[in-house]
Design a protein that fits this description.
The structure is a homodimer. With about 300 residues, chain A is of the alpha/beta class. Chain A is built from nine helices and twelve strands. Chain A folds into two domains: about 120 residues, Nucleotidyltransferase, domain 5 (2-Layer Sandwich), CATH 3.30.420.40; about 170 residues, ATPase, nucleotide binding domain (Nucleotidyltransferase, domain 5), CATH 3.30.420. In chain A, helix 8 links the parallel strand 11 and strand 12.
Chain lengths: ~300, ~300
């Protein structure tokens, strides 16, 4: 049968999926990205694993790769802070040499957007934005039915819009980027800022180092006021970001993608409220705020496979 | 010969241009938008003026209209604050009824971007943004060689990105929009804020009501420190806006459009400096900051004509 391979490269793990044309994941594999001494060793093993997935009577129609700082034009991972090798890594061309089918690479947020378009909730949409919320914050932007790569291939890094000038220090070295407010660390930082306002909170008594967004969700569901306030503030930050993003490309929907979306309405409701409250009048009550409709565990490999 | 008509509708004047296919303006006319009692009277006169421009042996290939809050999908001017009639005005369809050629309408910033693409400095570019600086601040965004209208036809209102949360009150009723800092009034407000820091300035001694951006330019050229500081701050505001805009669509160039661009390098230099200073590292030293290359007096009608 006709199959694609989707590869999701992360700083910790590299995940492989063998995927049928209708989006069924037939086989999954993973290797530890950090366990290789050199990039050459890593890419050799990656190629060998990918080859091992395809059976004799399968027809491999393409390989798609999603990666942090992946550039669609160059096919390289460029200076990704979370990768073990922080130079330009010619991933696409190395894989092309080893296979007889189309091979494409892009960044993980763009791959998520393509996955949403091909296999998820955006099949009928021409203008939408997928926002990825995780260690980093990014986006994949569809306009006129096509993904926006921009002139240099790096369009969509909305985690690094300076939303609060002079605000929190971001991992990129600048101040006020929205990523510093709503990535996993940023949400914990909001908790630290707010805990003194909620001295009764049980959540506030837990050692900060062991708190995760999952734990905050659990306390919020029990009505813990600090936990609810953390979601309120996070919703305020993301809501303002969406209201500002609306102005650029006026999408039909924003799709939220990433582990934190497990919090469901706890997160979506304050986002939607603050988005509308900050929206220019001509855009009010027009755009949907949805969760990604890709199955979470397979979203990244499905997105990568959607590239080809 | 084959001709187009470009119509630039403004709250004060409506300008008409008869334009050859290579972009030469063959004839210009204008009427006062505000001099009509009703929208029906206005549109009747508009159609009559447009008809009078075309000679018997001309072949009219299309009419393009640029207008504030013009919506390409509906063909209407929708709730434009500066128009005498603040409802939905079905301009495109009224004109279509009167002519036998394609008629299209969009907002003035989108028209400026199309003019730049067809007749100006962006002929060879697929990804670029035109920023219009005037009474309002807007943009027209090209991505993948096409103008971004968004799902509702209103993409590009970047004057209303909330860049300084809680900041200056904007005409739209919200706070912190960049328009409140860099439109004509916003620049004068910067002057008012700064004048007490420059007690020696000659510019600071002029009655504020008679100051214009042209006067500020003249003082800046003579070395007046207050005038230079107004350009420095305006450059800071616009520069941050461009750095933030870069993240969405990563254009090859930003084109600055509008009367204030007559200030030339006085304005462009601080914009470029602050844009690079606020730019995420992967975008640094990539994007050009240029002035519109459309002839200023005819830019709006050329842009409108580029629609068809």
């Amino acid at each position: 049968m006709k199959v694609r391979i989707g590869i999701d490269i992360g700083g910790t793990n590299t995940k492989f999926g063998l995927i049928s044309l209708d989006g069924t994941v037939l086989k999954r594999l993973r290797i530890a990205t950090g366990s290789f001494d050199t990039f050459d060793d890593y890419i050799t093993e990656l190629i060998s694993v990918a080859k091992s997935m395809v059976k004799k009577d399968d027809e491999l129609v393409g390989i798609g790769i999603g990666a942090p700082n992946g550039n669609v034009h160059s096919g390289m991972i460029e200076f990704a802070p979370n990768m073990p090798w922080k130079t330009k890594l010619p991933v696409r061309d190395k894989i092309r040499e080893a296979f007889d089918c189309p091979v494409e690479l892009t960044n993980d947020a763009n791959a998520a957007a393509m996955g949403e378009k091909i296999f998820g909730g955006a099949k009928e949409m021409n203008d939408f934005v997928v926002i990825t919320l995780g260690t980093g914050v990014g986006s994949g932007i569809y306009i006129n039915g096509k993904l926006a790569y921009g002139h240099d291939g790096f369009a969509g890094e909305i985690g690094h819009v300076i939303t609060y000038p002079g605000g929190r220090l971001c991992g990129c070295g600048r101040r006020g980027c929205i990523e510093a407010y709503v990535n996993a660390k940023g949400i914990l930082r909001t908790l630290t800022e707010e805990k003194y306002n909620y001295p009764e909170s049980e959540l506030g008594k837990i050692d900060e180092k062991s708190v995760t967004t999952k734990i905050i969700s659990e306390y919020a569901e029990k009505g813990d006021k600090l936990a609810l306030q953390v979601f309120e503030k996070t919703g305020e930050y993301i809501g303002l970001t969406l209201a500002n993003s609306m102005v650029y490309t006026s999408p039909e929907a924003f799709f939220l993608f990433g582990g934190i979306t497990k919090a469901g309405e706890l997160l979506r409701k304050p986002i939607h409220h603050h988005m509308e409250a900050n929206m220019l009048n001509i855009y009010q009550n027009k755009v949907k705020v949805l969760f990604s409709q890709l199955p979470e565990d397979d979203a990244a490999i499905l997105g990568a496979a959607a590239l080809v």
